[in-house]
Each structure stands twice: as C-alpha cells, then as structure tokens.
Amino acid sequence: MRDALRLALAIAAKDVRAELRSRTALLSAVVFAALVLVVFNFARDPTALAATDLAPSVLWVTFALAAMVALNRAFTIEREHGALDGLLLAPVPRGALFLGKLLANLAFVGTVEAVTLPLFVLFFNVDLAAALPGLIGVTALATIGFVSVGTIFSAMAVRTRFAELMLPVLLLPFMVPPLIGAVQVTSRLLAGRPLSEMLGWLRLLALYDVVFVTLCTMAFAAVVDE
Amino acid sequence: MTTAEAARALTRRGLRISVAALVGLAGVYVLALGYTPVEARQGAAQKIFYLHVPAAWSALVAFSLVGVTSALYLWLHDARLDRFAAASAEVGVAFSAVMLTTGPIWAKPIWGTWWTWDARLTLTLFLFFLFIGYLALRASVHDPAERARFSAVVGILGMLLVPFIHLSVYLFRTLHPQPIVLKPSAPSLPPEMLRTLLISTLVFTLL
After folding, report:
1. CB nearest to A152's CB, from B133, B153, B171
2. Which residues of B touch A (CB under 8 A)?
3. Which residues pair with B39 in a beta bridge?
4. pTM, whole model, 2 decimals?
C-alpha cells in the first residue's frame, strides 16, 4: 500500500515536472478559463440579474469547461511519444499508475481553478471573503470526483477516432451530480446559510468521490492493459 | 447439432419471439383504444400510458443488463457478453427514445408543458445521453477487444452513476405521477387499465 502511494506520487511528480518545463498547456487552460468568464459577462443582462444570483452557475460552468480542456490533454502527451508504453512496461501496479495520473490532473485542474477564482471575483465583483474556506472545500470535493472519472475516460478517449469530442460526450453525464451538488452548496455559502443546510449535498459529493475513485482505480487496468 | 444448425435454431427462436411480440403489440393498441375506459380527468391523453410506462420499463431493464453484462465481461472476457451489452444498449436507447417522445406528448395537455426538470425526466434524459455516448464510443474504436474493454468500463461506471443522478435530481422533485402499480398497498388502477398495462409491459419486454 505504501509502495503504491510512493509510486503514484512519483508518477504525479513526473507529470507536474513535465508540465512546469513547458507551461504551455497550463497557460492555455488558464487563459481559456478567463475567456469563458469574459464571455459569460456578455451573456447576461446586468440590470436584470444580480451577479451573486448568477455567480454559482458561472463559476461551476467555467470550472467544468476548464477541467474538460485540461483532461483532454492528460493522455495526449503520453500517447504522442509512446511514453505510456514505457510506463506500462515498468513494474507499477495499474492502480498506482491511475492514482498518479489522477493526482497530476488534480494539480493541473486545481491550479486553473485557483487562478480562475480571483479573476471571477474581479470580473463579477462578488464578495467571497466570508465563504472562501467553505468554497475551497466544496471545490476540492467536487473536483476530485469528476477529475477521477475524467482521467479514466481521457485514457480511453485518446485511443478513439475523435478524441476531443469523445471525452466531453462521455464525461458530461458523469459531471452532473458533482456539478449540481457544488452549485447548490456554493449558492448557500454565498447566501451565508448554516452548514446544516448543505450537509446532505456534501455527503453526496463525498460519497461520489469515494465510489468513483475506488471504481476507477480498479477499472484502470482494463483500459490500459492489452 | 452443429454450430450452424444451433445458430439457425437460435435465429428461428428469436424470429418467433419477435413475431409474437409484434402481434402482441397490435393487440395492445386494440386493448388500449377499445377495452380500457377513458380516464375521467385526463381523457384520451391517458391512453399513451400503455406505451409510455412499458417502454420506460424496457429501457431500464435494457440499461441494467448493459451494466451487469459489462461487469461480467471484465470478469469472464467472453465476447458474447460484450455483444449482448451492445445489443442491450441499442435496445435501451430505442425504448428511451419512445419514452422521451411519448412523455412530452402526454405532458403537454396534462401538465401544460412539454418538458419539465422533474427528477425522473432528468434521470431518463441522462441515461439516454449516457448510452448514446456508450454507442458512440463503440463506433469509434476499431480493435474489437479494446472496444469491449472500453465499453465495459463505461457500462459499469454508468450503472453506478444512475443512483447518483437519481439522488441529486430527486431534491428537485416536482410533477411526476407517483408510483401507482409497484407500491405497498393494492394498485390504485381500475382492473381493465391494470390488465392492459401488464399485457403491454410483457409485450414490450418481449420486443
């Protein structure tokens, strides 16, 4: 178990290092998220809808789209240079390999979210200060769930014919429960509601994470092993 | 019996079941239109219930079969299981298309709207999308073994997604008619209606 975790961390560290050396993917994803926010600004009527009413949906649609872009690229690099074959030849349990890729993707998506959040405050003039710790928590809970499913689908999608289209078609239905939960909790956080009103949704998000991280870790072997 | 003969026998049996189901379907139309009483408040629109509910039932059975055969495939690696899952997914998509078209036709006169984000409608819609994605994935992978493994993973994940979607959209619960057949007390339907519904359900399952 400890070995598997060590291997997973090593794989994640490798991916993060590769990402930091080029930085193009990360930068593009951040710029993409910022552009989505800007587009949203023009898609609403500021006199009809207050920014705080719209804030949770804007935030989560942006996060979802940015995660999709990030996940699309997760296995493309591994595929392009045959790097995945190298990884598969190494004596690494498939579960550890999956956890490593998951951690790397979480770091990537988390960075994009961390940059998007201040931009969101800036563009939409929403006061998040009071809700910030809760918001970070719910973002982590929801993100772990859909990035986990996204990681395994991304490994599949790179081997199909229309990879860029296949991933969103497969992944969006799976994003629905975490997104509904996250939007509900976020709007309650922004309205300053007590924790008891969010507990049901938080439990649902946590359960989703546990079920799908476990399941994807187990199913990953079926995706990569010939 | 040789394999070819066995295959022919199987095809003949499949054909006989299909013919029986089609004859039964014609019978269901006659029963639904002629035998059942016109519902007092909903009028003729209620007749669509004899198509809608059995189609929904068949779609759910088909989708559950996809999940179960996918799990079995990853365990046993039998190509027949994969073909069975693929066929079930196609059947499920077809029946949920029936369900998603007959539903709004009924809902417009009764609820006054074609579509509403009711828990069960949303769940069905996402099931439909999920399995369209499943079929699209199958169409875009060449290698049969790889296709089988990929779609089995999607099938299993999809089966587990269903309770989550159900839970999360249930909190938006709204207009959908509450269960009237499978509930603890006796079914609250007049006997003619119930009989027609059960026959129709049987026919749709055969189909």
Report:
1. B153
2. 74, 126, 129-130, 132-133, 136-137, 140-141, 145-146, 149-150, 152-154, 156-158, 160-161, 164-165, 167-169, 171
3. B43
4. 0.76
CA atoms within 13 A on the CB side of A107: 18
Q: What CA–CA distance (Å, rounded) separates B206 from B24?
A: 9
Q: Rounded to the nearest 5°, which phi and psi values hold at B43?
A: 70, -150
Spell out the domain ranges in chain B: 47-190
| Total domains present in chain A | 1
Residues in chain B closer than 8 A to A170 (CB atoms): 133, 137, 154
C-alpha span between A59 and B95 (Å, rounded): 36
Q: ipTM value of the model?
A: 0.76
Q: Report the candidate in B89, B147, B132 with the shortest Cα–Cα distance to residue A170.
A: B132
A163-217 confidence digits (pLDDT tens): 778 888 888 888 888 988 898 888 888 887 877 778 888 888 899 899 999 888 8
Give the domain extent around A98: 2-224
